[in-house]
Design a protein that fits this description.
Layout: H1 4-15, H2 18-29, H3 46-60, H4 65-69, E1 71-74, E2 77-80, H5 93-102, E3 108-113, H6 119-127, E4 131-137, H7 140-153, E5 159-162, E6 174-179, H8 212-224, E7 225-234, H9 240-249, E8 253-259, E9 265-272
Parallel strand pairs: 3-4, 3-6, 4-5, 6-7
Antiparallel strand pairs: 1-2, 7-9, 8-9
Helix pairs in contact: 1-2, 2-3, 5-6
Catalytic activity: L-glutaminyl-[peptide chain release factor] + S-adenosyl-L-methionine = N(5)-methyl-L-glutaminyl-[peptide chain release factor] + S-adenosyl-L-homocysteine + H(+)
Keywords: Methyltransferase, S-adenosyl-L-methionine, Transferase
Enzyme class: transferase
Length: about 290
Amino acid sequence: MPVIGELLSCCGRQLESRLEAELLMAQSLDRPRAWLYGHADEELPHAAAERLATLVQRRLAGEPVAYILGSREFFGRDFLVNPGVLIPRPETELVIELALQRLPLGPCRLIDVGTGSGCIALTLAAERPAWEITAVDLSPAALAVCASNAQRLGLERVRRLESDLLGSVAGERFDAIVSNPPYVAAGDPHLARGDLRHEPACALSAGADGLAIIQRLIAQARETLEPGGWLIVEHGHDQGPAVAGLMARSGLAEIATHRDLAGIDRVTLACRCAAGCTMVRNPASP
């Protein structure tokens, strides 16, 4: 039987990624990845070797590792994922960080628009137990994944609604709206490459310039936010000025674009100021 360490090296070369080889090996053995480091000289059982071969072939065919494993880590927690939801990405953690910075520790009503796997809504619910959180999505399949994650994390208190943006909560008010909406331009060649080929198009693409959904969300947000409430939106690397402009024209204030850890403009936020507040447009900030 083959030795684990040798197989890891071989699979790493095939996949051009040692990390992916370790993740798939750990999955085939039903062991944590860290276990591999202390057992590199052990032989891989035949059944595990067969499972590993199948997983490697799936990855070589282009299937995302997160879909193969059925989960992806986000903000220190594992979230179930499948091809019905977008795979959580590290850059989206900036949405979490900004919400935690801007909003109070105490009671707060927040809605996550286009929740997908629920990684934003459920992370915020775990980090802020006093918050009342609603997660909405147009896709019943995505809401089912969100429900599974809520159950696994003990966060069933998060309300889940099928909704086209804010349509199902018309008349309600929130202290914050957060969203990682579709923002890729329809003709972007990246949609036909890599993992994006396998992710749901409805969670990625939004019109010719990628701003169609964001524009609608901003238009609805002003009437849904409480005075002093925040809108926090993830967007593409070159969309910060356009998103800030849409927010300004909608009457929102204290507008600022923040960069992710790669130094890329990633999230723009704005406040619905109380009466008498003057609009201040801030430059991009790190």
